[in-house]
Amino acid sequence: MKIVLASNNAGKLFELQALFAPLGLELVAQGALGIPEAAEPFHTFVENALAKARHAAEHSGLPAVADDAGLCVDAFGGLPGVQTAYYATQFGYPKGDDNNVRALLEQMQGIDNRRAALVSTLVAVRSPQDPEPLIAVGRAVGEITRAPQGENGFGFDPVMFLPQFGKTFAELSPEVKNANSHRGQSSRAMLALMRERWLP
Questions:
Q1: Which positions bind substrate (predicted)?
Q2: Bind-site residues for Mg(2+)
Q3: What is the pTM of this model?
Q4: Which CATH number fits domain 2-197: 3.40.50.300, 3.90.950.10, 3.90.550.10, 3.30.1330.90?
């Protein structure tokens, strides 16, 4: 079955393709089909992911899956949340992973409560009007380091320290990361839902 991924993020596509492969599902990035990015006007991951999935399904005529993910920092009341991708722009930096990490570390200087969660909400629809979207959430809880560590991954991986491993996500192998990450958790939950409800 071919499913449109409502994202043009190469890192997300790479991770999700590997996670969805066991079901024989082929993920195609919406950009490869000429589908423009959807508006994300909402304040929750689930609302934005649903809007993106419906948009991609409408433009492609195919089932679609969307991931809305972000960093929720305890000391900031759960922010940046859905604005994670644009976090650096609030502080005068251009949009981008490296600048997001820089801005976060600057904003957290002098803050002792470093607890944070990376959250991934996956939403899948069979059609634009699907009344029963599949929704799966994954959370990886850790602590924000005081400096980047590790070369793997993307996003906030270099500053997301996982006490159970004594390492950041960026210091883990892709296999270990996928087994424990927020996106790995939400993907496994989504695959279980698809098996149960979509596949014969």
A1: 7-12, 69, 154-157, 177, 182-183
A2: 68
A3: 0.89
A4: 3.90.950.10
